[in-house]
Amino acid sequence: MAEHMGPVTLTTHPVQRAGAWAVAVLAGRGAPEEVSRADLEKVVGRVVEDVCAAAVAGKDTPAYDWWKVLFSQYPNSKATHSKRSRNRDVLRPEVEGLFAPDSMTDVPSAVYGCTFCGRLASVVWTKTVLPMFDTSKALNTLPPRVAGWPVCWGCRVAAWALPYGAWVTAGSATVLTCEEPSAERVFAARMVQRAQRVIQAGFASLPATAHPERVVAMALRRLGPGLPSTAVLWTFKNDNQEPWLRVTRTRRATSRFLAVVDGRAPVRAGWHLLEEALTVRDRVGTVVTNGREAVARLLFEAEDGQSRSLLSQVYRVLEGRTDDWSPHEREALAGLAFTYAKEVLGMEPKLTAVATLLADWIEHGSASSRGKFAEYRKVALNDYQLGALLMQAQSRLLLDGHTPAAGPDDWAAVIGQRPRVWEQRMLLFAAVMQQLAQRGVAVSQKVPADEDDQIEQLVKQPILQADEDDFEEGAA
Ligand SMILES: [Zn+2]
Question: How far is the CA of 10 from the centre of ligand 1 (A)?
Fold first, then answer.
């Protein structure tokens, strides 16, 4: 290795990568490559102290929480094993031994290329000290004829700095990988701050906010529209029983979407309304589900396809709680849905004519607007029934002497089996709501006097701001 190179390399492995960023933040450096040997020694000192303090902590103390974190990632290490020494002076040299710099002279025959970064390594590690290795869900499998994975000094420290750079719980860790390093840096800085709180005062000291999805969303919003990049969250548990790995990712255009939402006042209001709508409180008013976290989570898609989409959630709150929304609020939510479809899904829905047909039919005609709206609402996502309703609306308008705004050619986009037809129907519903709001057709009870004030307040708030008890901006 060249002399000028620091001991830490940023690789593509999510565990090493998160750890390398944590090392950089702990060392007060801008990036892992800037970490010097002296920096790394200091980081080792800190990691060793924290590990030893956690390993000797009493079970009922807050300091024991960090031990749970370590146990979930390195269940059979010397520091976490049930038979570990409870004497710090005995434990310290054992833990320090894990992080000794590589020796290139002692056993030249036993020098390999590091599993992560490829630089020379004199130490071979096994899964007892490496998270997410050699498990059924492993990110790696062991190369043949090797007693473990060669891991260089920098990567060994990174592997144990991981809990500082991850969103940790007592049983799992979540790390971020992103094409855009500045987002990773922001994430790591927040997590290091959070880890410090856990180490000092335990999980009970943490605010129930700023989950990893929202931290990433805040970082992506900062990137602005010019830097499309996918953010991937890897959540895993490495304990003795059932190791698992869950992966969720944002679509590339998410940063642009967030910039557009933040830049357009009515859409911004839609974002805040969705946050409000997804907030769940118990009987005494305590927040059970934080809507801000919930909306940020909607930006991520699970690999198994089991995640909820932002579009379907907007539809759900528009459709399921029609009576809760004033006309302006409905327009704001519909605007959010259309912005998401355009910016994130790349859709260009042409639904104005069909929405106009439905709005005309709801507004005019013999029965009450509210009744006809309820009829449409019931079939809004049903292929066959929606088709039948559109036919009926068209004939009704013709019979009553109106000119229908749309015919079967126009509604082909929302009927039948075609890509994104489900999304088209949800957007159609939003478009109908929008038109009815603009025409002043009442389909719900709610017309509060101070409605405009409320919307104005929401419009003023930027999205994805840190909460009061979130961490300070940029602090590490
Ligand atoms: Zn390495």
Answer: 9
